Amino acid sequence: MPVIEPAAAVNDGTGTRIISQSLGSPAAASATAVHAALAVLASAGPQVVTSGITSPDVPRNLTATAGGTAGDVAAVQVTVTGTDASGAVITEALPAFTLDTTGIVTGSKAFATVTSYSVPAMDGTGATVAIGTGEKLGLGAHLARNTVIAAYLAGTKEGTAPTVAVSASVLSSNTVDLNSSLAGTEVIVDYYQS
Length: 194
Fold this sequence. Notes:
By secondary structure, the protein is mainly β. Helix content is 0%, strand content 45%. A hairpin with a 2-residue loop joins strand 11 (148-153) and strand 12.
């Protein structure tokens, strides 16, 4: 998995750099991009999955989809382990599924790789869980505040500012979510970094 590198940096004379960073050409979000739907156990203890996993195409957030028989879906949280854009190990407990309801839950951390995920016991063997990718892309930099200037999709500046999450201490919590849907074309984000 490639580490995100700034495409260009310009110093504005005050010690602040303007970064123009390519985030790659991320595919559209997919509910099964990381792991196809898996029948889950209805017995005690979590089911840990370590094989058949495909890491995201670029550092991005993950989703979990509860499917199958709605009445067998428990209000449990899937926990995902992998690495961030720097190679550091990260873990995220995704939001809990809604009891007796099929549907999708969305994480917030940007995963560069996925090494495993864990699903607690469900209420019956008719439930399935799939792991996919979302629309939030990892910035690959620590930002203390939102300093994003602009985002570009396929060379065109987004007319609506992206939704940005920042963290001065947790790299995987620095994400950008474009207004437009991802479609396998290059994403570039310009931001200030001091």
